[in-house]
Structures are given as C-alpha cells and as structure tokens.
Specification:
- This protein has helices at 2-13, 37-41, 65-73, 78-118, 123-148, 151-177, 204-211, 214-294, 301-304, 307-320; strands at residues 188-190, 197-199.
- The chain is mainly α.
- A two-stranded antiparallel ribbon has the order 1-2.
- Helices cover 71% and strands 2% of the residues.
C-alpha cells in the first residue's frame, strides 16, 4: 500500500517533490543505475508471475515510462546492446528452467502411468471404461454412416452417444458422492509452455482458466520475446550478407568502370600520338619537298671558276709581287 501511494504521488507531483525549492533537480537519463534495464528494453519478468508458483518477487529497480521512451528514442549504442543481451540471457535462463520442469513432469507422469497400468481396475473405473469404449464405437459408426451418406442414421447414433455421455457424467457424480476419487484414474499431461499438470479431456472452462492464468501467459510472453529476438538476429544477419554482396557488386562495378576509363584513356593517348606522328611526318615531307624544289645552293663566282683558271690567277699575282 505504501509503495502504491508513493507511485501515485510520484506520478502527480514528480519524483523530486521533496527537494528544497533552491535546490536544482538532477537531470535524469535512461542510463541511470536506478532504472530497470528489462523494463527499458521491453518488460520486467518480475511483473509476470506475481502471486504464482514462479513469483520472482518485487523488482528493486525503477519502472518509468518516460525513461523507457527516452531509451527507445536513443540511437543504438553499445550500452543498449549490453541491455538487450542481458535481457535475452535472463529470459533464456527462465525458459531453460521451465523446460527442465516440463521434462521432469513428463518423466513423473510416465512413471505414474506405468504403475496405473499394472494396478487392477476397480469396479467403478471398469464401468466408466466400458462406457467410454461404447461411446468411441458409436462415434466411429456415426462417421461411417456419414461417409455413406446416411445422414439420419448418423444423427441417431450421435444422439445416442450424447445420451451415453450424460449417463457417464451422472455415474461419475454418483461414485464421487460415495467417496471414490476419479482424479487418480484420469490421464494427465504436462503443459508444454508453463509445466503445469493438466487433465486430458478436462472441461473447456478449466482449460480456458489455465490458458488465461498468469503463469501460462507469463511463460508464453517470455517464449515469444525470445523467438522475436532470434528472428531479429536472423534478419540482421541476412541484411548484412545481402549488404556485403551488394558492396562486392559495387566494388566490381567500380573496378570495371576504372578499367574502362583506363582503356579509354590509353586509346585517346594512342590517338594523340598517332596524330602527332602524322603531323610530324607531314612537316618533314613538306620541308623535303621544298628543298627539292629550290635545288642545291648556288656556288660563289670564285668557286664557279675552273681549277686551271684559278691556278693561273695565283701565278699572275706571284709574278706581280
């Protein structure tokens, strides 16, 4: 009651209601140690099994919707990943524990059934067993009549079957009023979700009560949370694999584009070299043809004279001297 009143006052006036006026309230964050990590992530397992055989006791941490909203809006970081892993480990341990209980319960039922098979049936149990056999036989005959198309006979057989069921229930009530316990004669099974013992063929109202119980709903929620986490991990791995394949394709595309650019660059360089070579050849051919048109260079008048005349000219100069 005190905790409930405290929560109500916190909701109305805030958690800092007792601070002095001149003292500034501490800015809160979802990373504070007082917050329940499991509640921030999705839900707190301590709230699932209150007043049941699997009660974990009250949670000592703070459950604040505002902090949960801040946690969900915060970007993904290593702190959030640690909280998620811790939550998964906690619920996995709880599921492993209840799975061990389920296995032990099945072994216990197998042992009980083996002892019941060896024990001789009482007169009351034998009478009920005979009625069950007759009911099963009538149901098979009604199904065969329905397959043949004899609707009237099938309907009559089902009415007779319903009447025998009413007689069986009346007989069971009569035996139970005399102190005979039929619960020991009924077949049992173990719930594959929460390890509870169930009566096979029990009334639908009792089955519904079990399915809507805190323990069954709590373990169902734990199992679904673990399945959702596994599905999320598989989806993330698939996206990473597809992302790596797409990145490799992009890398191959970039390599092909680079190779194509290098090839085009080499081709353009070859074209430029060929154009330069052709231009150089044309220039040389032009110079050569121009020189051919001009002919050999003219000799000077002195060089154009014959050798004999040059010699004679030298002798005349020497004789004058």
């Amino acid at each position: 009651m005190v905790d409930y009143m405290r929560e109500q006052l916190d909701e109305l006036m805030g958690r800092n209601r007792n601070l002095p006026v001149d003292q500034k309230a501490k800015e809160r964050s979802w990373k504070d140690s007082e917050n329940c990590k499991f509640f921030l992530h999705s839900f707190c397992p301590h709230d699932l099994f209150v007043n049941t055989k699997s009660d974990l006791g009250p949670c000592t941490k703070l459950h604040d919707e505002e902090m949960r909203k801040m946690y969900q809006e915060a970007p993904r970081c290593s702190r959030k990943l640690d909280i998620e892993n811790e939550f998964v480990r906690f619920i996995s341990n709880m599921i492993q524990e209840v799975d061990r209980k389920i296995q032990k319960g099945k072994q216990r039922l197998d042992l009980m059934n083996s002892k019941l098979d060896q024990r001789p049936l009482s007169k009351q149990a034998e009478a009920i067993a005979n009625i069950n056999d007759k009911i099963s036989k009538l149901i098979r005959e009604a199904e065969e009549a329905g397959v043949r198309g004899d609707v009237d006979q099938a309907q009559n057989l089902m009415e007779l079957c319903d009447k025998m069921k009413e007689d069986k229930d009346a007989l069971i009530k009569q035996y139970e009023s005399c102190g005979f316990n039929f619960s020991e004669q009924k077949e049992m099974e173990v719930c594959s979700t929460c390890a509870a013992f169930l009566v096979i063929g029990d009334a639908q109202s009792r089955i519904d009560d079990h399915l809507m119980g805190k323990q069954h709903i709590g373990y169902s929620k734990l199992r679904k949370a673990l399945e959702d986490h596994k599905a999320y991990i598989e989806k993330e791995l698939e996206e990473r694999r597809s992302g790596s394949s797409s990145s490799s394709r992009r890398r191959d595309d970039r390599f092909r584009d680079d190779h194509r650019r290098d090839r085009d660059r080499d081709r353009e360089r070859d074209r430029r070299d060929r154009r330069r070579s052709r231009s150089r050849d044309k220039r040389d051919d032009y110079k050569s043809s121009r020189n051919d048109r001009r002919g050999s260079p003219k000799k000077s008048r002195r060089d154009s004279r014959s050798p004999d005349r040059r010699d004679r000219h030298r002798r005349d100069r020497r004789s004058r001297s």
